[in-house]
Please model this.
Amino acid sequence: MNVTIVDYNSGNISSVINSFTEVAKGKVNLEVTSDLNKIKSSDKVVLPGQGSFKSCIDALNSINGLTDILSEFVMIDKKPLFGICVGLQMFADVGYEETETKGLGWLPGKVSKIDNKNGKYKLPHIGWNQINIVKDSKIFKDVENNSHMYFVHSYEFIPEDKDVISAITDYSSNIVCSVEKENIFGTQFHPEKSDKVGLKIINNFINL
Amino acid sequence: MLKNRIIPCLDVKNGRVVKGINFVDLKDAGDPVEQAKIYSDGGADEICFLDITASNENRDTIYDVVKETSKKCFVPLTVGGGVRSVDDINKLLNSGADKVSINTAAVQNPSVVEESSKKFGSQCIVVAIDAKKNGDGWEIFTHGGRKETGINAIEFALKMEKSGAGELLVTSMDKDGTQSGYDIELMKTISESVNIPVIASGGVGTLDHLVDGIKSGASAVLAASIFHYGTYSVNEAKQYLASKDIPVRI
Model:
């Protein structure tokens, strides 16, 4: 099996590469690339994302044909894709970080700034928070409810269809921290930085 | 609920772990990769490497240390010390650091903070503030605490927040190495002034000091020697904080 991490200059992806390398050892073939043909022929794709919604979308768009290939992979070929942090946020129709920016539109919804309740909550939301699993998700196999995951973000994904939400976390309000819809998976938290339980989620995705 | 973080810090010189007393009198003791792994297995919420003499010496060894550590530790890794430019930040991130802390360069050339937070995202930019009591306020120092600047610490903290820092790592120069506790007044004043998370640093000698640090409003507490010399394990520290009703990840 081939798992591809999309390398599109979205900032720092070395931790994503390290964690997937650790889990994939001897199990699957891991590629880190922006090569369209390799992505297209891959069995699974990981879409990381750091920085702002706009900077990640701009970086995707700067590689000719990449968004089309990814959309085809997800929406037509229906192959599994895992978005992490801004990688998940980009599933939305639109994001409002820096300026209004069109997203990939795979899951209807928007990405807006977390309400900090007039400074009561510090932003970014940085650190370990517990996830409340609200529906069965394949990537949460053997993951206990209320497990701690590592977060670092100031914006949240608000999907129109609440059925896609697989876990929420409590920070100022109930923040969507994980989604699953058919072959589309995403976490707002960083499984690659969430120690053993995070590696378990990565393992679950690889074993899908 | 978001938990308060405990961050063990390892001072690294030429690829080896050391710990300074008031930033001098260094003692060598250990391999940073193994140390970091012990900490992360023991429940550390993040790991911090401070390349202490980096401003003066060849610092390429740190890239190898970061590379090796990031292959074995799957909790966030912050690296600081001698970071001068956007290119230095890029190199550390590419080596496997999750965050980079910037001290002297943030004072001398604040555009480094602005540019790097735009380029890599605020989430990986930590501004390290070394502050010393001066009259009614605090003044910031650079170059590992050796150089005074005349700049007010609170004003500087606000400026760094505006420039795009994701977190502030605040060290009291008066307290660092003394094991007499954080400068609570400093932590409280900065935490209340900014809307980004503050990491308290400098002066931890007992577990009660960690409790005091969190109560001052800091989101995370950093300590070096109490963990490094095995006075307490990270897990003991967490159990103690939990017993004092401070939310931690256990």
Q: What stands out?
A: Chain B has a mean pLDDT of 91. Chain B touches chain A at residues 1-5, 40, 45, 70-71, 74-76, 93-98, 118-124, 166-167, 195-197, 219-220, 249 (CB under 8 Å). The first helix of chain B runs from residue 32 to 41. The longest strand of chain B covers residues 125-134.
